[in-house]
Amino acid sequence: MPDKTIMTEGHTLWEIYAIRYGNNPRRTRGENFILEKRPADPMPMDFYCWVLKAQGKLIVVDTGMDPEKASRHGHDILCTPVEAWKALEIDPASVDTVILTHAHYDHLGHLDALENAHFLMQAEEMSYVTGPWMQRPWFRRAYEPDELARLVHLLHAGRLTLHGRDHEIADGVSVHWVGGHCAGQEVVRVKTARGWVVLASDALHYYEEYERGIPFSVAFNLSDMIAGHERIRELADSDDHVLPAHDPRIVQIYPAASEPLKEKVLRVDLPPAAGGNTG
Ligand SMILES: [Zn+2]
């Protein structure tokens, strides 16, 4: 199946809601970075998924983490994506389009709540998670077999599209393969009123990777991971238009979607506070 090439500039302007559904205040620098000089120093991790909204259209990007998996992997849930969707007046059963940026357990929980949705993911990610690399514990460490089986069921039910590397989802929304963190890692490029924003998902966990040009600890291919930073720079209007999936700095610099959703749901289509990403 040929890919839809990204030829058109997006005219639809999207709002982006970043859902901070979990965190891990116990995490250390040594768990995040290879050859880290201060491995015992604290480096808390937040967990995000996103919702894109425009003119009555809605796209869900990643679906958070199953609470049982969160506790098994030592992470805390702050509010489930299902709770956040409902707070944003989104009925999960009405969602029709879901982008899965990759298949790690912290990006595809709650799939059953999206009973009428169609899912999209990189074809390379599906080959990877069902192929020979999974014979090795290092590569399968962030995957959960029951969730991968759910993807197989969705595929056979005609509810999962496995697309090529660059793929247009809607006017002003496209996904782009970068690999690195896992074989099928992608980033999401979204046209907003302030320009092109890139949801880097796990192509960046923290801004520090991007600033220092260093890899995150969980990796399939380090050269693709570092090259991915350059791809993100090409796709985003500026470094202030780039959103990692796990950085606690995000909640400090972006406005809340509303007062009751403070520190849980942020508007990242709006500009960050003065000073931007600079930590
Ligand atoms: Zn992640």
Structure write-up:
With 279 residues, the chain is of the alpha/beta class. It has a domain at 15-171 and 250-267: Metallo-beta-lactamase, Chain A, CATH 3.60.15.10. The protein has helices spanning 29-32, 67-72, 81-87, 123-129, 137-140, 145-156, 207-212, 222-235, 249-253; strands at residues 15-24, 45-54, 57-61, 76-77, 97-99, 118-122, 160-163, 166-170, 173-177, 186-192, 195-201, 242-244, 265-267. Strands 1, 2, 3, 4, 5, 6, 7 and 13 form an eight-stranded mixed β-sheet that branches. Strands 8-9-10-11-12 form a five-stranded mixed β-sheet, covered by helices on one side. A hairpin with a 2-residue loop joins β10 and β11. The N and C termini lie far apart (43 Å). The model is unreliable at 1-8 (pLDDT under 50). Zinc ion is lined by residues 104, 106-107, 202, 245-246.
